Hints:
The complex is a heterodimer of chains A (274) and B (173).
Chain A: H1 2-30, H2 33-61, H3 63-94, E1 106-115, E2 121-126, E3 139-142, E4 145-153, E5 158-165, E6 169-174, E7 180-184, E8 192-199, E9 209-212, E10 224-233, E11 238-245, E12 254-259, H4 261-273
Antiparallel strand pairs in A: 1-2, 1-12, 2-5, 3-4, 3-12, 4-5, 6-7, 6-9, 7-8, 8-11, 9-10, 10-11
Chain B: H1 2-22, H2 39-42, H3 50-68, H4 73-91, H5 111-134, H6 140-172
Helix pairs in contact in B: 3-4, 4-5, 5-6
Amino acid sequence: MNNFYEILKRLYTHAIFLVLLGISLSLYFNTTYYQKAQIGLLTKSLSGFWHKHTSFFTELFSLRQTNMYLALENIKLRNQMEAYRLRLRELQDSGSSFLDSAHINHYILARVIDNSINTRKNFLTIDVGSRNGVYKGMGVITQNGVVGIVASTSPNYSSVISLLNTDIKVSVKHKKSGSFGAISWDGTSYRKVILDEIPLHCNVSEGDTILTSGFSTIFPKEIPIGRVVDFYNKDGSFLSITVELFADFKTLDYVYLVDSKGINEIHQIQTENR
Amino acid sequence: MVSDYIKYLWLAVILFLLQFLVLNNIDLFGYANPYIYILLVLLLPFNIPHWLLLLLGFATGFVVDYFSSTIGLHTSATLVLAYLRPFIHQRWSFKSVRYEYSNPDLANVSLEWFSIYVVVSVLLHYTVLFMLETFTFHHFYLTIFRILLSTILSSAFIIIFEILRVRNVKRLK
Lengths: 274, 173
C-alpha cells in the first residue's frame, strides 16, 4: 500500500510538470510579437526612469565616438544643404512646379534607452512615444542605415522591432544594377543580414552598396544600408547575398524616426483630384 | 523558518535587479548573455516538495519573461530545470554533509560539488532555452556554440556570485 502511495506521489509531480509546461509553451507559441512588444513596453516605461539615469553615465564613455559621428553628419548635411540651395535657385529661375517639395520627410529625433542584439527576436526601446507624434509602423533609421520599425507606442516610449529580428523584411536595392530584393536577418551575426531575390544575371561583386528601395514609404529612398561581403547561387535563379551592415547595432544611441504620413496624405489628395 | 523565507525573497529581489539592470546589458560577442537568476531554483532546500519546486521554477521564469518580453521562453526553460533538479541531485548525490533542511549552497557543500551542480544545471537550462528560441536545426552548430559559451559565462558568474554571497553571510554571522 505504501508502495502504491509512493508511485501516486511521483506521478502527481510529473502531472504538475506537464500541466505547467503546457501552459508555458502555449504562452510562448501563442503570443505574437506585437503582444510581446506591448508587454515589454509596459515594464520598460517603469524601468525607463532607471535607464535614463544609467545612460547618463554610460554615454560618457561613448561621447568621443558620438561626437565624431555628429561632426561627420554635420558635414554631410551641410553639403546636402548647399546642393539643395543650388537646386532651389535653379527651380526659382525656371519657375517649375512646387510638387517636388512634397517628397520631403519629417524626422523625429529619439534616443535608444534599451537595446538587445543577442536573441533572435530583438527589440529596441526609444524615449519618444505617441505624445511626440510617434505611431505604429514608422521607420527608424540612423545616419548609418535602417534600424527597424515601430511596433507599439505608449505616451512616452516606443518599442521598435529591430532589423535584427527574424520576423521582419526590408525592401532594398542593389545600387549598381538597380535590381530589387529584400533583406532579412538569419539570427547569426549582428553585423550581417541576408539579401534574397536578386536575380543571377545581375553583376554583383564584393563591396557593392545596398540601399533602401523606398517602395513601402516606411523608409525614405536610397539610404545606404550596407555592403556586399559574400554571395552565392542559391537555387539556380536567385543569389543569396550576405550584406555587412553599416550600422553597428551594439552602439546605437541617437536614431531618427521617419514620419511619412505627410507624403501619403499629399499623394492621396493628388490622386483624388485627378 | 520565517527568516528563511525572508532571506529567499531578499535573494530573489537582488538577483532580479542584478539580472535586469546589469547582466542583461552584457553580451559577449553578441552571442552569450549570462543568466544568474536560476540560482533561485538551484539554492532551494534539498528536501523541498517537488510540486513547490516546480511552482517556484515556473514563477521565477515568468518574472524574467515578463521583464524581457519573451513570454513563455524562460518560464519553460526554468520549469524544465526545476523538474530535472531532483534527478541531478540523485545522480551526483552529496553524501558527506546532507542535512535534512539544508540548502545546496556553498556554506553546506564543497566547491567541487557546487561547480558540477551549477555547470550541469546551467547547461540543461541553456539547451532548453536556445533550442526553444531558435526552434530550428538550421544553425545547429552555432546554437551548440552559443550554448557552450553561455554556459561557461553563466556558470562563472553564478559561482563567483555564490562565493561572494556566502562570504558576506559568514561575515555577518
